[in-house]
Structures are given as C-alpha cells and as structure tokens.
Design goal:
Layout: E1 13-17, H1 22-33, E2 37-42, H2 45-57, E3 61-66, H3 72-86, E4 91-94, H4 109-137, E5 141-146, H5 149-152, H6 159-179, E6 184-191, H7 205-213, H8 227-234, E7 245-248
Parallel strand pairs: 1-2, 1-4, 2-3, 4-5, 5-6, 6-7
Helix pairs in contact: 1-2, 1-8, 3-4, 4-6
C-alpha cells in the first residue's frame, strides 16, 4: 500500500458527534471525501441537512442520527442504530460542545452542569460505549476528541469551558494508554481560533486584537484547515499515533511575548 493510499477510508464508517456544527461538519466532509460513510450526530436534523448537502456535493456520503450525547442510554441507542444500518463503526469523533463567557463570580450551578455534561460527560459516555463495542469484537478503532486551545493553557473569561476541555485532554491521554495494545487509538485534535457558532459571543473586537497579537500567522483559522489533521488521525496513515494532541492554531501555542 502506498503512503497516499494509507489516507483512504474506503469501507470505513465514521460517527461524528457534533457533526451538525460548522467545525465537525467540515471534519466529516474530509472523512467522507476520503471514502468513509459518515454519520452526523446531533439534536437537529434541520442543522444536519446543510452539512449533508455539503458532503454530497463533494462526492461523499453522510446520514443523520439524532442523539443527546450527554445521555449514555442515548449513545448506546446511537451505536446500535449505526451498526444495524451500516454494519460497523471504525472512527468516532467527539466534537459536541457549548461555551460561555459568564464572569467567574456569576457562574451558576446549572451553567456548570450544562457545560460539563455536554463537553465532558458526553465524551466519557461515547468513549465507553464505542470502545466497549470494539473491545468485545476484538476490533481496532480511532477516537478523535475535539479539544481546545483553552484546554492546553486556560483562556480568560471561559472558565467552565476551559476546565471541561482540559478534562477532555487528560481523559484522551489516559484512554490512549489504556487501550493501546488493543488497537484503539485515542487522540485530541486542538483547533485554534476558528470563528464558529460556539465562540461568536467571546470574539469581541478587543478579544480579536489580543488573539491576533498572539498568533504568528496573524489570522483566524478556517474550518477546512482541520480536515488534514482529522484524516491523519482517523486513517491508517496515523496508525502509530495515539495519546497525542495535534494543534491546528496558526502558531498560537508556540507564542509567548
């Protein structure tokens, strides 16, 4: 097999939790154009339609499955539906997430519960459910958990979000060690500042100026720039990559003053 062929995903099935959003939608497109059948998972079929159409126009194949990823029972039902319809699962992306810019002293308990439930508990449940399926079947798999620059170094004003993403980073490394011998790879994809629904509220002019001053490339990222790293982590080309964080941020993490 040539090096290029190792990036192909023909015959593979990828489940993208959060696939109805902008960033994970483009990640899903990258997988689909490499040959994978993609399942976009979210709460809104209407939101999924735009991404399904985008993937179809690029020659890929995608379907929608509704799921509340913060419920383990829902995730178990999701896995069963996917296996029943498509026969298997090979790749799991955990990319559902919510953010908040509430001042620290004003953060309410229900906000903490909501953010941790979606951003962290949902990742825990999906990793448990899908990895158990692979382990029981004696099958390898690739898990890509979507992290955040604020999970590496905390960012101001997004206290609970930063904590939830730091937990995802830590969990990913722990699980990579846990399942390495069974062929289940677990990695974290870390997007830099890419404008999307989740971060619109915090990208004020002042905030944008601070980000640009700390980004060597002096620009925001674009969603499509996550596709290459996604394909590397999902495919055979990344077969010896586990427990790592791949940062796609225009140099942000390399900058101090």
């Amino acid at each position: 097999m040539s090096d290029i062929e190792r990036f192909k995903l023909d015959g593979k099935v990828a489940v993208v939790i959060g696939g109805t959003g902008v960033l994970c939608g483009v990640m899903a497109k990258g997988l689909a154009t490499a040959g994978a059948k993609v399942v976009l998972v979210g709460r809104s079929e209407e939101k999924a339609k735009a991404n399904i159409d985008m993937i179809a126009s690029a020659g890929g194949e995608a379907v929608f499955e509704a799921c509340d990823a913060s419920s383990k029972a829902n995730v178990e039902a999701l896995l069963k539906n996917v296996v029943d319809k498509l026969g298997s699962v090979d790749i799991l992306i955990n990319g559902a997430g919510v953010n908040s810019a509430t001042p620290f002293l004003e953060i309410a308990e229900d906000e903490i519960d909501r953010i941790l439930s979606i951003n962290y508990k949902g990742v825990v449940f999906a990793c448990q459910v899908f990895a158990k399926h692979w382990l029981d079947a004696g099958k390898a798999g690739s898990i890509i958990n979507v992290g955040s620059a604020s999970g590496v170094t905390p960012l101001s004003r997004v206290f609970t979000y930063s904590a939830s993403k730091a937990a995802v980073h830590n969990l990913s490394k722990n699980l990579a060690r846990e399942w390495a011998e069974q062929g289940i790879r677990v990695n974290t994809l870390v997007p830099g500042f890419i404008p999307a629904e989740q971060n619109k509220k915090v990208l004020t002019p002042e905030r944008t100026a601070q980000i640009m001053g700390h980004t060597p490339m002096k620009r925001f990222g674009e969603a499509h720039e996550l596709a290459g790293a996604t394909l590397l982590l999902a495919s055979g080309a990344g077969s010896f990559i586990t427990g790592t964080e791949i940062i796609v941020d225009g140099g942000y993490a390399a900058m101090t003053i």
